[in-house]
Amino acid sequence: MANVLKGKKVVLGITGSIAAYKACYLIRGLIKRGAEVQVVITPAGKEFITPITLSALTSKPVISDFFAQRDGTWHSHVDLGLWADIMLIAPATASTIAKMANGVADNMLVTTYLSAKAPVFVAPAMDLDMYAHPSTQKNLDILRSFGNHIIEPACGELASHLVGKGRMEEPENIILQLETYFAAQEGVLVGKKILITAGPTYEKIDPVRFIGNYSSGKMGYALADECASRGAQVILVTGPTQQKTHYPMFRCIHTESAQEMYEAATANFAESDAAILSAAVADYTPKKVAEKKMKREKTGEMTLDLRPTHDIAQQLGRMKKEQGDNKLLIGFALETDDEQHNAEEKMLRKNFDFIVLNSLNDKGAGFRCDTNKITIIDRGNRTDYPLKPKSEVAADIIDRLVEELKKKN
Ligand code: CTP
After folding, report:
1. Hey, what domains does the chain have and what are their CATH numbers?
2. pLDDT digits (tens, 9 = 90+) for 352-369
Protein backbone atom coordinates (compact mmCIF):
# COMPACT_ATOMS: atom_id res chain seq x y z
CA MET A 1 0.00 0.00 0.00
CA ALA A 2 1.25 3.47 -0.81
CA ASN A 3 2.33 5.52 2.18
CA VAL A 4 -1.00 7.28 2.53
CA LEU A 5 -0.39 8.54 6.07
CA LYS A 6 2.66 10.60 5.09
CA GLY A 7 2.09 14.24 6.03
CA LYS A 8 -1.36 13.54 7.48
CA LYS A 9 -2.27 15.54 10.56
CA VAL A 10 -3.71 13.32 13.26
CA VAL A 11 -5.49 14.55 16.36
CA LEU A 12 -5.19 11.64 18.80
CA GLY A 13 -7.73 11.75 21.62
CA ILE A 14 -6.77 9.72 24.68
CA THR A 15 -9.24 8.94 27.47
CA GLY A 16 -9.14 7.30 30.89
CA SER A 17 -8.65 3.63 30.13
CA ILE A 18 -5.97 1.17 31.08
CA ALA A 19 -5.37 0.81 27.32
CA ALA A 20 -4.02 4.41 27.31
CA TYR A 21 -0.47 3.03 27.35
CA LYS A 22 -1.13 1.58 23.89
CA ALA A 23 -1.42 5.16 22.62
CA CYS A 24 2.42 5.24 22.77
CA TYR A 25 2.61 2.43 20.20
CA LEU A 26 0.00 4.20 18.10
CA ILE A 27 1.97 7.44 18.13
CA ARG A 28 5.19 5.62 17.28
CA GLY A 29 3.54 3.79 14.35
CA LEU A 30 1.90 6.96 13.02
CA ILE A 31 5.08 9.01 13.23
CA LYS A 32 7.08 6.24 11.60
CA ARG A 33 4.73 6.56 8.62
CA GLY A 34 5.32 10.29 8.43
CA ALA A 35 2.15 11.52 10.16
CA GLU A 36 2.07 14.50 12.52
CA VAL A 37 0.35 13.73 15.82
CA GLN A 38 -1.28 16.17 18.23
CA VAL A 39 -2.51 14.58 21.46
CA VAL A 40 -5.64 15.82 23.21
CA ILE A 41 -6.14 14.02 26.50
CA THR A 42 -9.04 14.00 28.96
CA PRO A 43 -8.43 14.69 32.67
CA ALA A 44 -9.05 10.97 33.38
CA GLY A 45 -6.62 10.02 30.61
CA LYS A 46 -3.82 11.80 32.48
CA GLU A 47 -4.34 9.41 35.40
CA PHE A 48 -3.24 6.56 33.14
CA ILE A 49 -0.41 8.07 31.13
CA THR A 50 1.67 11.19 31.66
CA PRO A 51 1.60 14.09 29.21
CA ILE A 52 5.42 14.16 29.41
CA THR A 53 5.69 10.74 27.75
CA LEU A 54 3.20 11.75 25.09
CA SER A 55 4.78 15.11 24.31
CA ALA A 56 8.20 13.46 24.09
CA LEU A 57 6.86 10.98 21.53
CA THR A 58 4.95 13.56 19.46
CA SER A 59 7.40 16.46 19.86
CA LYS A 60 4.38 18.66 20.63
CA PRO A 61 2.85 19.91 23.86
CA VAL A 62 -0.11 17.78 24.94
CA ILE A 63 -3.45 19.59 25.04
CA SER A 64 -5.81 18.87 27.87
CA ASP A 65 -7.22 22.11 29.23
CA PHE A 66 -9.02 24.94 27.52
CA PHE A 67 -6.17 27.23 28.59
CA ALA A 68 -2.43 26.53 28.71
CA GLN A 69 -1.48 26.43 32.40
CA ARG A 70 1.81 28.25 31.94
CA ASP A 71 0.67 31.46 30.24
CA GLY A 72 -3.10 31.22 30.06
CA THR A 73 -3.13 31.00 26.23
CA TRP A 74 -6.50 29.82 24.95
CA HIS A 75 -6.40 26.50 23.11
CA SER A 76 -8.75 26.75 20.17
CA HIS A 77 -10.65 23.51 19.70
CA VAL A 78 -12.03 24.94 16.45
CA ASP A 79 -8.55 25.50 15.00
CA LEU A 80 -7.54 22.02 16.11
CA GLY A 81 -10.66 20.51 14.58
CA LEU A 82 -9.90 22.24 11.28
CA TRP A 83 -6.18 21.39 11.38
CA ALA A 84 -6.85 17.65 11.59
CA ASP A 85 -6.93 15.33 8.55
CA ILE A 86 -7.96 12.53 10.90
CA MET A 87 -9.33 12.47 14.39
CA LEU A 88 -8.66 9.21 16.21
CA ILE A 89 -9.95 8.57 19.71
CA ALA A 90 -8.04 5.61 21.12
CA PRO A 91 -8.71 4.39 23.70
CA ALA A 92 -12.31 5.65 23.87
CA THR A 93 -14.11 4.93 27.16
CA ALA A 94 -17.87 4.37 27.52
CA SER A 95 -18.09 7.80 29.13
CA THR A 96 -16.34 9.66 26.29
CA ILE A 97 -18.39 7.75 23.70
CA ALA A 98 -21.55 8.80 25.54
CA LYS A 99 -20.41 12.44 25.63
CA MET A 100 -19.56 12.39 21.91
CA ALA A 101 -22.94 10.83 21.05
CA ASN A 102 -24.80 13.46 23.06
CA GLY A 103 -22.69 16.57 22.56
CA VAL A 104 -21.61 16.91 26.20
CA ALA A 105 -18.71 19.28 25.59
CA ASP A 106 -17.20 19.46 29.06
CA ASN A 107 -13.59 18.80 28.08
CA MET A 108 -11.15 19.75 25.34
CA LEU A 109 -11.41 16.36 23.62
CA VAL A 110 -15.18 16.46 23.11
CA THR A 111 -15.17 20.13 22.06
CA THR A 112 -12.49 19.31 19.48
CA TYR A 113 -14.58 16.35 18.29
CA LEU A 114 -17.62 18.59 17.86
CA SER A 115 -15.71 21.02 15.68
CA ALA A 116 -13.72 18.45 13.68
CA LYS A 117 -14.34 18.37 9.93
CA ALA A 118 -12.07 15.36 9.39
CA PRO A 119 -13.10 11.68 9.40
CA VAL A 120 -13.35 10.41 12.96
CA PHE A 121 -12.18 6.98 14.11
CA VAL A 122 -13.11 5.63 17.52
CA ALA A 123 -11.47 2.61 19.17
CA PRO A 124 -13.58 1.63 22.20
CA ALA A 125 -11.85 0.18 25.26
CA MET A 126 -13.79 -1.06 28.25
CA ASP A 127 -14.77 -4.27 29.98
CA LEU A 128 -17.21 -6.60 28.29
CA ASP A 129 -20.23 -5.77 30.50
CA MET A 130 -19.90 -2.05 29.88
CA TYR A 131 -19.36 -2.66 26.17
CA ALA A 132 -22.35 -5.01 25.88
CA HIS A 133 -24.68 -2.66 27.79
CA PRO A 134 -27.48 -1.32 25.55
CA SER A 135 -26.51 2.21 26.53
CA THR A 136 -22.99 1.83 25.09
CA GLN A 137 -24.25 -0.02 22.02
CA LYS A 138 -26.83 2.71 21.41
CA ASN A 139 -24.18 5.42 21.73
CA LEU A 140 -21.91 3.56 19.31
CA ASP A 141 -24.82 3.33 16.87
CA ILE A 142 -25.34 7.08 17.22
CA LEU A 143 -21.66 7.68 16.39
CA ARG A 144 -22.00 5.36 13.38
CA SER A 145 -25.03 7.36 12.24
CA PHE A 146 -22.79 10.48 12.33
CA GLY A 147 -20.48 8.68 9.88
CA ASN A 148 -17.80 8.00 12.51
CA HIS A 149 -15.79 4.82 12.08
CA ILE A 150 -15.86 2.48 15.04
CA ILE A 151 -12.74 0.34 15.20
CA GLU A 152 -13.39 -2.93 16.96
CA PRO A 153 -11.38 -6.13 17.06
CA ALA A 154 -11.94 -7.96 13.78
CA CYS A 155 -15.45 -8.50 12.59
CA GLY A 156 -16.32 -12.01 11.53
CA GLU A 157 -16.39 -13.87 14.81
CA LEU A 158 -19.47 -15.93 15.60
CA ALA A 159 -22.25 -13.61 16.72
CA SER A 160 -22.58 -15.36 20.06
CA HIS A 161 -18.85 -15.30 20.64
CA LEU A 162 -18.22 -12.16 22.63
CA VAL A 163 -14.77 -13.03 23.98
CA GLY A 164 -12.42 -10.09 23.53
CA LYS A 165 -15.21 -7.63 22.73
CA GLY A 166 -14.68 -4.25 24.33
CA ARG A 167 -10.90 -4.71 24.25
CA MET A 168 -9.17 -1.99 22.24
CA GLU A 169 -8.00 -3.09 18.81
CA GLU A 170 -4.23 -3.52 18.58
CA PRO A 171 -2.35 -0.35 17.50
CA GLU A 172 -1.00 -1.91 14.30
CA ASN A 173 -4.54 -2.89 13.22
CA ILE A 174 -5.84 0.59 14.01
CA ILE A 175 -3.11 2.06 11.80
CA LEU A 176 -3.93 -0.46 9.06
CA GLN A 177 -7.56 0.69 9.18
CA LEU A 178 -6.52 4.33 8.81
CA GLU A 179 -4.26 3.41 5.90
CA THR A 180 -6.93 1.40 4.12
CA TYR A 181 -9.41 4.22 4.66
CA PHE A 182 -7.17 6.76 2.96
CA ALA A 183 -6.10 4.33 0.22
CA ALA A 184 -9.77 3.59 -0.48
CA GLN A 185 -10.56 7.32 -0.72
CA GLU A 186 -8.93 7.20 -4.14
CA GLY A 187 -10.59 3.93 -5.18
CA VAL A 188 -12.94 3.43 -8.13
CA LEU A 189 -15.78 2.18 -5.95
CA VAL A 190 -16.00 5.28 -3.75
CA GLY A 191 -19.65 6.12 -3.16
CA LYS A 192 -20.90 2.64 -4.10
CA LYS A 193 -22.68 0.36 -1.67
CA ILE A 194 -22.11 -3.33 -2.15
CA LEU A 195 -24.03 -6.05 -0.39
CA ILE A 196 -22.25 -9.37 -0.03
CA THR A 197 -23.54 -12.64 1.42
CA ALA A 198 -20.88 -15.03 2.71
CA GLY A 199 -20.36 -18.30 4.51
CA PRO A 200 -22.68 -21.18 5.30
CA THR A 201 -26.02 -21.19 7.10
CA TYR A 202 -26.85 -23.31 10.12
CA GLU A 203 -30.36 -24.77 10.24
CA LYS A 204 -31.25 -25.72 13.77
CA ILE A 205 -32.47 -29.25 14.54
CA ASP A 206 -32.42 -29.00 18.35
CA PRO A 207 -30.44 -26.90 20.88
CA VAL A 208 -27.17 -28.71 20.05
CA ARG A 209 -27.46 -29.80 16.42
CA PHE A 210 -27.82 -28.15 13.05
CA ILE A 211 -27.70 -28.83 9.32
CA GLY A 212 -24.75 -26.96 7.83
CA ASN A 213 -22.29 -27.15 4.96
CA TYR A 214 -18.55 -26.90 4.32
CA SER A 215 -18.48 -23.25 3.22
CA SER A 216 -15.70 -21.38 5.07
CA GLY A 217 -16.70 -17.87 3.97
CA LYS A 218 -13.18 -17.26 2.59
CA MET A 219 -14.37 -16.26 -0.89
CA GLY A 220 -17.06 -13.89 0.43
CA TYR A 221 -14.68 -12.18 2.86
CA ALA A 222 -12.02 -11.87 0.14
CA LEU A 223 -14.63 -10.16 -2.07
CA ALA A 224 -15.66 -7.85 0.76
CA ASP A 225 -12.01 -6.89 1.43
CA GLU A 226 -11.45 -6.28 -2.28
CA CYS A 227 -14.51 -4.00 -2.54
CA ALA A 228 -13.52 -2.09 0.60
CA SER A 229 -9.96 -1.64 -0.67
CA ARG A 230 -11.42 0.09 -3.74
CA GLY A 231 -13.47 2.45 -1.61
CA ALA A 232 -16.88 0.77 -1.58
CA GLN A 233 -19.10 0.77 1.44
CA VAL A 234 -19.61 -2.91 2.15
CA ILE A 235 -22.55 -4.53 3.87
CA LEU A 236 -21.42 -8.05 4.64
CA VAL A 237 -24.23 -10.42 5.59
CA THR A 238 -22.34 -13.36 6.96
CA GLY A 239 -23.24 -16.80 8.21
CA PRO A 240 -21.18 -18.38 11.01
CA THR A 241 -17.51 -18.35 9.98
CA GLN A 242 -14.04 -17.95 11.49
CA GLN A 243 -13.08 -15.26 8.95
CA LYS A 244 -11.92 -11.81 9.96
CA THR A 245 -11.47 -8.52 8.24
CA HIS A 246 -9.78 -5.33 9.32
CA TYR A 247 -11.40 -2.82 6.98
CA PRO A 248 -13.13 0.01 8.85
CA MET A 249 -15.91 0.79 6.41
CA PHE A 250 -17.59 -2.55 6.80
CA ARG A 251 -21.01 -3.14 8.16
CA CYS A 252 -21.06 -6.74 9.27
CA ILE A 253 -24.43 -8.35 9.87
CA HIS A 254 -24.07 -11.70 11.61
CA THR A 255 -26.71 -14.26 10.78
CA GLU A 256 -27.11 -17.94 11.38
CA SER A 257 -30.05 -19.44 9.49
CA ALA A 258 -31.17 -19.03 5.88
CA GLN A 259 -34.19 -17.10 7.19
CA GLU A 260 -31.99 -14.59 9.08
CA MET A 261 -29.72 -14.18 6.07
CA TYR A 262 -32.76 -13.67 3.83
CA GLU A 263 -34.14 -10.95 6.11
CA ALA A 264 -30.82 -9.10 6.36
CA ALA A 265 -30.12 -9.31 2.61
CA THR A 266 -33.58 -8.22 1.46
CA ALA A 267 -33.65 -5.36 4.01
CA ASN A 268 -30.37 -3.94 2.67
CA PHE A 269 -30.75 -4.52 -1.07
CA ALA A 270 -32.74 -1.39 -1.93
CA GLU A 271 -29.90 0.94 -0.90
CA SER A 272 -27.18 -1.15 -2.60
CA ASP A 273 -25.67 -0.58 -6.04
CA ALA A 274 -24.64 -4.21 -6.37
CA ALA A 275 -25.04 -7.49 -4.54
CA ILE A 276 -22.71 -10.48 -4.67
CA LEU A 277 -24.23 -13.70 -3.40
CA SER A 278 -21.41 -15.98 -2.38
CA ALA A 279 -23.12 -17.59 0.61
CA ALA A 280 -23.86 -21.30 0.58
CA VAL A 281 -27.46 -21.07 1.73
CA ALA A 282 -29.31 -24.18 2.92
CA ASP A 283 -32.13 -25.05 0.56
CA TYR A 284 -34.07 -26.86 3.30
CA THR A 285 -34.60 -26.37 7.00
CA PRO A 286 -36.20 -28.61 9.65
CA LYS A 287 -39.96 -28.11 9.85
CA LYS A 288 -39.77 -28.07 13.63
CA VAL A 289 -36.91 -27.22 15.96
CA ALA A 290 -36.97 -29.53 19.00
CA GLU A 291 -36.96 -27.50 22.21
CA LYS A 292 -34.91 -30.10 24.07
CA LYS A 293 -31.98 -32.16 22.91
CA MET A 294 -33.34 -35.07 20.91
CA LYS A 295 -32.62 -38.48 22.42
CA ARG A 296 -31.36 -41.40 20.43
CA GLU A 297 -34.20 -43.84 19.79
CA LYS A 298 -33.34 -47.33 20.95
CA THR A 299 -34.77 -48.94 17.86
CA GLY A 300 -35.66 -47.89 14.41
CA GLU A 301 -34.63 -45.12 12.06
CA MET A 302 -35.26 -41.45 12.34
CA THR A 303 -36.73 -39.08 9.77
CA LEU A 304 -36.33 -35.31 9.80
CA ASP A 305 -39.08 -33.37 8.06
CA LEU A 306 -37.69 -30.46 6.07
CA ARG A 307 -39.30 -27.50 4.35
CA PRO A 308 -37.75 -25.29 1.65
CA THR A 309 -36.05 -22.03 2.67
CA HIS A 310 -36.39 -18.74 0.80
CA ASP A 311 -34.12 -18.38 -2.20
CA ILE A 312 -32.36 -15.11 -1.39
CA ALA A 313 -30.91 -14.77 -4.88
CA GLN A 314 -34.24 -15.28 -6.60
CA GLN A 315 -35.94 -12.74 -4.35
CA LEU A 316 -33.21 -10.13 -4.96
CA GLY A 317 -33.46 -10.88 -8.71
CA ARG A 318 -37.17 -10.09 -8.46
CA MET A 319 -36.58 -6.91 -6.45
CA LYS A 320 -33.92 -5.84 -8.96
CA LYS A 321 -36.45 -6.08 -11.81
CA GLU A 322 -39.08 -4.15 -9.79
CA GLN A 323 -36.53 -1.45 -8.95
CA GLY A 324 -35.71 -0.74 -12.61
CA ASP A 325 -32.94 -3.28 -13.29
CA ASN A 326 -30.19 -0.72 -12.69
CA LYS A 327 -28.44 -2.66 -9.93
CA LEU A 328 -25.91 -5.41 -10.44
CA LEU A 329 -26.62 -8.88 -9.15
CA ILE A 330 -23.87 -11.47 -9.16
CA GLY A 331 -24.31 -15.09 -8.18
CA PHE A 332 -22.17 -18.15 -7.66
CA ALA A 333 -22.70 -21.69 -8.80
CA LEU A 334 -20.89 -24.74 -7.53
CA GLU A 335 -21.69 -27.60 -9.86
CA THR A 336 -20.59 -31.19 -10.20
CA ASP A 337 -22.06 -31.98 -13.61
CA ASP A 338 -23.38 -30.28 -16.74
CA GLU A 339 -21.71 -27.17 -15.30
CA GLN A 340 -22.13 -24.58 -18.02
CA HIS A 341 -25.74 -25.45 -18.70
CA ASN A 342 -26.69 -25.47 -15.00
CA ALA A 343 -24.89 -22.19 -14.33
CA GLU A 344 -26.56 -20.44 -17.29
CA GLU A 345 -29.95 -21.69 -16.24
CA LYS A 346 -29.34 -20.39 -12.68
CA MET A 347 -28.20 -17.00 -13.98
CA LEU A 348 -31.40 -16.54 -16.01
CA ARG A 349 -33.72 -17.94 -13.32
CA LYS A 350 -32.27 -15.66 -10.63
CA ASN A 351 -31.81 -12.60 -12.89
CA PHE A 352 -28.03 -12.37 -12.31
CA ASP A 353 -25.94 -10.06 -14.52
CA PHE A 354 -23.23 -12.69 -14.43
CA ILE A 355 -22.52 -15.88 -12.56
CA VAL A 356 -19.25 -17.17 -11.15
CA LEU A 357 -18.93 -20.88 -11.71
CA ASN A 358 -16.60 -23.01 -9.70
CA SER A 359 -16.47 -26.67 -10.29
CA LEU A 360 -16.01 -29.30 -7.62
CA ASN A 361 -14.22 -31.33 -10.30
CA ASP A 362 -11.26 -28.91 -10.26
CA LYS A 363 -8.59 -29.66 -7.68
CA GLY A 364 -7.96 -26.68 -5.38
CA ALA A 365 -11.30 -25.02 -6.18
CA GLY A 366 -14.41 -24.55 -4.06
CA PHE A 367 -14.98 -25.20 -0.37
CA ARG A 368 -12.34 -24.95 2.36
CA CYS A 369 -9.50 -24.08 -0.05
CA ASP A 370 -7.36 -20.95 -0.12
CA THR A 371 -7.43 -21.10 -3.91
CA ASN A 372 -10.20 -21.12 -6.47
CA LYS A 373 -10.60 -21.67 -10.19
CA ILE A 374 -13.50 -19.84 -11.72
CA THR A 375 -15.35 -19.27 -14.94
CA ILE A 376 -17.42 -16.13 -15.36
CA ILE A 377 -20.51 -16.64 -17.48
CA ASP A 378 -22.73 -13.80 -18.62
CA ARG A 379 -25.46 -13.57 -21.23
CA GLY A 380 -23.50 -14.98 -24.13
CA ASN A 381 -19.85 -15.11 -23.04
CA ARG A 382 -17.67 -17.37 -20.99
CA THR A 383 -14.27 -16.41 -19.50
CA ASP A 384 -12.06 -19.04 -17.88
CA TYR A 385 -9.50 -18.04 -15.25
CA PRO A 386 -6.56 -20.11 -13.97
CA LEU A 387 -6.23 -21.48 -10.41
CA LYS A 388 -5.34 -18.57 -8.10
CA PRO A 389 -5.41 -17.55 -4.42
CA LYS A 390 -8.91 -16.45 -3.39
CA SER A 391 -7.73 -12.84 -2.89
CA GLU A 392 -6.67 -12.69 -6.57
CA VAL A 393 -9.86 -14.41 -7.69
CA ALA A 394 -11.75 -11.73 -5.76
CA ALA A 395 -9.82 -9.03 -7.66
CA ASP A 396 -10.79 -10.64 -11.01
CA ILE A 397 -14.46 -10.73 -10.00
CA ILE A 398 -14.42 -7.13 -8.76
CA ASP A 399 -12.64 -5.96 -11.95
CA ARG A 400 -15.57 -7.42 -13.83
CA LEU A 401 -18.09 -5.85 -11.43
CA VAL A 402 -16.47 -2.42 -11.96
CA GLU A 403 -16.75 -2.86 -15.74
CA GLU A 404 -20.43 -3.79 -15.50
CA LEU A 405 -21.23 -0.96 -13.09
CA LYS A 406 -19.73 1.50 -15.59
CA LYS A 407 -22.09 0.16 -18.26
CA LYS A 408 -25.11 0.61 -15.95
CA ASN A 409 -24.36 4.27 -15.19
N1 CTP B 1 -28.69 -18.76 -3.17
C2 CTP B 1 -29.37 -17.92 -2.32
N3 CTP B 1 -30.34 -18.41 -1.50
C4 CTP B 1 -30.66 -19.73 -1.51
C5 CTP B 1 -29.96 -20.60 -2.36
C6 CTP B 1 -28.99 -20.09 -3.18
O7 CTP B 1 -29.07 -16.74 -2.32
N8 CTP B 1 -31.61 -20.18 -0.68
C9 CTP B 1 -27.67 -18.19 -4.09
C10 CTP B 1 -26.25 -18.62 -3.79
O11 CTP B 1 -25.62 -17.70 -2.88
C12 CTP B 1 -25.61 -18.60 -5.15
C13 CTP B 1 -26.75 -18.96 -6.10
O14 CTP B 1 -27.95 -18.66 -5.39
O15 CTP B 1 -25.16 -17.33 -5.52
C16 CTP B 1 -26.76 -20.37 -6.55
O17 CTP B 1 -26.77 -21.24 -5.44
P18 CTP B 1 -27.09 -22.78 -5.60
O19 CTP B 1 -27.15 -23.42 -4.25
O20 CTP B 1 -26.17 -23.35 -6.61
O21 CTP B 1 -28.55 -22.63 -6.21
P22 CTP B 1 -29.82 -23.50 -6.04
O23 CTP B 1 -30.95 -22.65 -6.54
O24 CTP B 1 -29.92 -24.01 -4.67
O25 CTP B 1 -29.58 -24.62 -7.11
P26 CTP B 1 -29.55 -26.21 -7.04
O27 CTP B 1 -30.68 -26.59 -7.89
O28 CTP B 1 -28.22 -26.54 -7.65
O29 CTP B 1 -29.68 -26.61 -5.61
Report:
1. 9-184 (3.40.50.1950), 193-290+304-408 (3.40.50.10300)
2. 999 999 877 777 776 777
